[in-house]
Amino acid sequence: MTLKEVGLKIKLAAPTGRAAKRLSEATGRQASTIHRMLQFTPEDGGFYYNEDQKLKADVLVVDEASMLDAQLCLAVLRAVPLTCRVILWVMLTSFRQLDRVTFCLICCKAGRSRALC
């Protein structure tokens, strides 16, 4: 049984437009950039979806999660409801390209948070 068949609302996102397009092609489902999903507001540099206005999703899959910096990852985690399952997809080859320390700190902090378990 798939997540969709169970009746869960699934969102797919990626840090870049190119990655979102590949994710959409690979899954056959609509994917967007993280900024578009959170509805970036250039006036204040924030996002429409945040800790006060939650995304409507039961499952969020973020492709190329190792490309997220701490601020963007925090914005994503603040915007999801506590009941949302967050899947951070990372290719092992990504670690050669990017700052592992930042990504590891995010994962360690998220892993210790009871609200995210």
Plain-language structure description:
This protein is α/β, with parallel strands linked by helices. 26% of the residues are buried. Helices cover 40% and strands 17% of the residues. It has a single domain, classed as 3-Layer(aba) Sandwich (Rossmann fold), CATH 3.40.50.300. A four-stranded parallel sheet has the order 2-1-5-6. The chain has helices at 3-6, 17-27, 34-38, 70-79, 94-97, 100-112, and strands spanning 10-14, 31-33, 40-41, 46-47, 59-62, 85-88.
Keywords:
globular, 6 strands, 117 residues, 6 helices, single chain, Rossmann fold
Q: How many beta strands in the DSSP annotation?
A: 6
Arithmetic mean of pLDDT: 82
Query: Helicity range of the residues?
Result: 40-55%
- The rough form would be described as globular
Number of domains: 1
CATH architecture term: 3-Layer(aba) Sandwich
Strand content: 15-25%
Strand order of the largest sheet: 2-1-5-6
- Global structural class: alpha/beta
The CATH superfamily label reads P-loop containing nucleotide triphosphate hydrolases
Strand count, sense and barrel status of the largest sheet are: 4 strands, parallel
Instruction: Specify the CATH class.
Output: Alpha Beta
Order of helices and strands: HEHEHEEEHEHH
Look up the CATH topology: Rossmann fold
Low-confidence stretches: none
What is the rounded distance between the termini? 23 Å
- The DSSP helix count reads 6
